[in-house]
Amino acid sequence: MPGIDGLSEEESAIVGLVRDFVDRDVKPVVAELEHANTYPAQLIDQMKQLGIFGLAIPEPWGSGVSMPCYALVTEELSRGWMSLAGAMGGHTVVAKLILGYGTPEQQERYLPRMATGEIRAAMALTEPGGGSDLQAMRTTARRDGDGYLISGTKTWISNARHSQLVALMCKTDPAAQPPHTGISIILAEPGPGFVVSRDLPKLGYKGVESCEISLAGFRAPVTALLGGREGEGFAQMMRGLETGRIQVASRALGQRRAALEDSLRYAQERESFGKPIWQHQSVGNYLADMATKLAAARQLVLHAARRLDAGQRADMEAGMAKLFASEAAMQIALDAMRIHGGYGYSTEFDIERYFRDAPLMIVGEGTNEIQRNVIVRQLIRRNSVAP
For residue 386, what pLDDT is reported? Predict the structure, then answer.
């Protein structure tokens, strides 16, 4: 029996369970936690109990829901607090990397405990001087006996202090040409030489930490090389980021939906000139545009998710979903503030939080300028004109 957005009845029930968790347990406490920038330990524990960290991991380790289901669960979490969706974002990408490219030993070592949330994972791509240019990274992993000696610095690593596993992009062959052929992924378990040096202060996305990591004399065993072959990390991570970009787009959906729901409620309760403000054309137009953009973005996200499930290349579709959803999230947050007037600027209302959280999705998981580059390259490749 089909459920919401074409999901099975069982998957629809999972989305409903997460929706209830958000309404019952997240929304009543989110303002206090967010304003205090408090790590949501209790909510994370509840997410573990609900099986949320294992949703993208198939049997026999996890529940293995479809990508559309995963996207809608992410939307629900973000509707409550975008930081909760962020707490499972990198974790899911790392799980997909291990599923797709890990050795049988790596899969058995990590996936059972990742599915329960006993092990939480993060990914470390960005470097202070590199930004979106991943091929320019300077972190190196030099073969040394039966392992790798790793040196370098990573930045903007979400969940760095609360993860037991980090998918670390580094150069195993710094002289390789082209540079991406010398990049590998090390499944790093923090230990001596792996230092979370500081938490980065942020405009929004509170509660969940974003950190710098310093690596000096950090050793990882040779068995930590994802897939067991050097030089394949760049292609592996680009594939993994298709999932990551769908996840970020889904976060944008949830944040936009929360802004719309709050605005619809406020526009019916607030009166001016003797009538509810939604009856004023300017406010009504904002609401109509917000709802239309939300519906369009959701279809882009679900389309990308279905392509990924079908085993098709989805970098263009994931890029489109992330680009459209994140840009519209910023606009919807601004329009929600306009509808709320002065109250939207007050920290007593959630609107100002949506406004502070929205920009992250424009720059996170590859800036939107990068998304446009991905989209146009695939457009040309899929529609090439013979010379």
Answer: 74
What does the block give as tokens for 203?
Answer: 């405009």
Output the CA torsion sign for 111, 116, 118, 120: positive
Structure tokens, 81: 């607090």
In this predicted model, what pLDDT tens digit does every residue of 218-245 receive, in sequence order? 999 999 999 999 999 999 999 999 999 9
Share of the chain above pLDDT 90, in %: 91
Amino acid at 343: Y
Residue 369 designated active-site? no
Percent over 70 (pLDDT), the chain = 98
Which segments within 309-351 are labelled E, that is strand? none
What confidence tier does 129 reach under pLDDT thresholds 50, 70, 90? confident
Looking at residue 204, the DSSP 8-state letter turns out to be S
Rounded Cα–Cα distance for residues 222 and 141 (Å): 10
Q: How many angstroms separate the most distant Cα atoms in the chain?
A: 79
Q: Alpha carbon 174 to chain centroid distance?
A: 29
For residue 302, which of 317, 316, 289, 312 has the smallest C-alpha distance? Answer: 317
CA distance 212 to 199: 7
Q: Could you give the C-alpha distances from 191 to 4, 44, 218, 220, 325, in angstroms and in order?
A: 44, 23, 7, 9, 38
pLDDT the model gives residue 4: 67
The contacts of residue 192 (CB under 8 Å, 6+ apart) are 217, 218, 219
Give per-residue pLDDT as tens, 308-331.
999 999 999 999 999 999 999 999
147 strand-pairing partners: 144, 221
- What is the bridge-based pairing of β-strands 194-199 and 140-144? unpaired
Using a 10 angstrom Cβ sphere, with 0-12 exposed, 13-18 middle and 19 or more buried, the burial of residue 193 is middle
pLDDT bucket at 2, cuts 50 / 70 / 90: very low
pLDDT over 80 (residue 131)? no
232, 327, 365, 369: the catalytic one is: 365
Question: Dihedral through CA 175, CA 179, CA 184, CA 185, nearest 10?
Answer: 130
Pairing of strands 121-124, 165-171: parallel
Judge residue 183's burial from the number of C-beta atoms within 10 Å of its C-beta, 0-12 exposed, 13-18 middle, 19 or more buried: buried
Tokens, residue 259: 């802004």
